[in-house]
Amino acid sequence: MDGKIRLALFDFDGTLTRRDTFLEFIRFCFGSGRLYAGLLLFSPLLILMKLRLYPNGKAKQQVFSHFFRGMDERRFEAYCSDFCHLRLPALLRPEMLREVDRQRAEGARLCIVSASIDRWIRSWALHQGFERVIATELEIRDARLTGHFRTPNCYGAEKVRRLRAIYPLRSAYYVVAYGDSRGDREMMGWADESVRIPGFIRHKAECS
Asked: Phi and psi for 153 in degrees, rounded to 5?
């Protein structure tokens, strides 16, 4: 590594967790019945998204807006805090927590890069020693959620765009990226070493 700073990047949903926390958070806040009713309402849009005929970020924002538009920010933050303490621990992969511990012990700087909403990740991540959470951020006006995202959905190429803005001196870092899906492909290509989860399939790559 020639004196470079070790930077470990972790996707969140499906990498650190066993399943998507976006849907689990909605279930936690409103119950399974309302979650399934909402998914049924948006099922034509979600099918188009799966077929890559409709943008992932726009579909996600519409579902989010359906459930949370107009909610008081303090109430939303309370939901996020309760989710981190009461539901998130059961969703985490123990083997990945060990990998986080290993990277930390080796002196790596830890960063989560996720398409999920930053607010239900951040308190857990900071407690675990992550120095930064790069994720999708919400728009707040007059202390209420507008239902819109303040940043683009942090997915695919957007992950690399955000990383380059925060870590502009790429040559100073040896980057290890962990991911599980096509939404992590560009981030893993940007890294010196990528690890696909599950299975811990490692790949060394040239920096882009």
From this structure: -55, 125
Quote the CA–CA distance of 96 and 113 in Å, as a whole number. 15
Read off the pLDDT of residues 36-84 as tens digits, 9 standing for 90 and up: 999 999 888 888 888 888 888 899 999 999 999 999 999 999 999 999 9
DSSP category for residue 183: G
Q: Are 188 and 159 in contact (CB under 8 A)?
A: no
Domain architecture of the chain: domains with CATH: 5-204 (3.40.50.1000)
Q: 């120095």: which residue's tokens?
A: 131
pTM of the full predicted structure?
0.91
**Nearest C-alpha neighbor of 152 from the set 140, 167, 168, 137:** 137
The dihedral region occupied by 81, where left means phi > 0, alpha psi between -120 and 50, and beta the remainder, is: alpha
Neighbours of 171 (CB within 10 A): 7
Count Cβ neighbours within 10 Å for each residue of 112-126 and write b for 16 or more, e otherwise. Answer: bbbbbbbbbbbbbbe
To which H or E segment does residue 137 belong?
A: none
CA end-to-end distance (rounded Å), the chain: 17
Distance CA 155, CA 56 (A): 8
